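Z., the sequence and structure:
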Amino acid sequence: MINDPYTYTAIYARQSSAKQSESLETQVALGKNYAFEKNLLVYKVYEEAISATKNKINQREKLHNLLEDAKAGYFKYVIVYRRDRLARIFEDYLEIKNALVKYGVTILFTNDVKTKVDNSPLSSFVDNILMAVAELEPTYIRDRVNNGKRMKKEAGEYGQKPPYGLMVSENVIIEDKRFAKGYKAVPREKNDIELIFKTFLREDIQSFNDLHEALKDVKFNDIKNKSEIEKILKRPIYAKRALFDTENYSYNGFNIVEKETGEELPVSLDYFYKCENVEGIIEEETWLKAAEKMATIGDEKSIRVYNPFKRLLLEKVYCKKCNNRMELKGDYYKCSTCNNSMNYKRVNAAAKENLLVIKLRNINNEIKKKAQEKIKDEIKENKANLIKNINLQREKVEKFLEYPNDKDLRIEIESLSNEEVIISEKLRELESRYKSLMELSESKITNLIKYKLEVSESNYTTLKDVIDCFVEKVEVDKFYGKTCTVRLL
């Protein structure tokens, strides 16, 4: 009996978010009870927390393992809480079901219509209808929620958690016919917000640093750090405005960003609806002027996020004491095994100084030659991998022509095709870097390192080439002189 796969069942449980009522523990417990009722032994429990809508079948590790074990014949039943736990998309469910049926596995459900899924025509007919309904359910709910939100916005209703300066008040009437939750200003916090906007719009304030300096002696009600001051400037709700089309656009405080293309658009009131149930703290004109001013000093934000040396040295900073790669936590590089740490600004300055001390004329000789050879070896290796991949694809396709119903073979071909794209992109990147390396001169490298950079994608790319080609690691030594040493490739 123990060796008979017909006495064994697998249990599969999936949860896409913590908010779902049917937790993994609940699904597994119900599955075990059902197995006990059917006199089945549980071979293995496969559980995972992952979205079935956003992830393909081959991206769900536990489901993939279940299908592999089913193919090996370890069990002949699978117990699932509901059909939508296996898949949310009808085509995915058909693929999973057909694979299990092909392996002689019957699907059983603990909290769904108790029609077992096997290869009988009636079972397939009923199961397909039930799954089609299950696929419609989340789409229908999502459409209803989105339509409800859109209707509220069109009516001028704001319904989010109140930010600093606002609090929920009694219901108010909007559009002269419906009640909505009201938001009113908190008096003391309102004064803080008015002061921040007024100070920011002064002519002598040309950056966030200027703003923080001007407000350093002000005692705010409940503002604990500089970032909270900047967040206040980025909230249009203080002018009774909120972004309307949040599905297609976002607002980062500097520009309107089109999500699909990433294109940055100038801030305009056209993208915002008026919130009739919110008490305004500042005038629309005041907020718009602040938004336009932030767009002009947005480079300061970019420098913090896209600081060239901060990004370029991130993978190359090591602890000299224990030779571990250091992680950037906040403003400090920290070693996970000892107390070695150093402010990233100090690491950047030391790296810059070390690079300037190096005799850069050697870059055009030994160092440059070594870097070129390294990239050439990578290009050669990737070309070999590409040829190997293409030949393997050809073999699989020829085999697939003989066995067109072999879905495992089809998945292998798709995987190889995706791998080919990745290798090809890597090759293009390496060839571009090699070309850039050929064009690098001593004076160009010196200027990039020595002078203050205008942050741009072209400068970042060139700097990345310099660092990747010439710098192996930066060693941080806090214990003996608090120094950083740059080691070249």
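The two ends are 63 Å apart (CA to CA). Residues 299-307, 451-458 have pLDDT under 50 and may be disordered.

Let me know what you think.
H.
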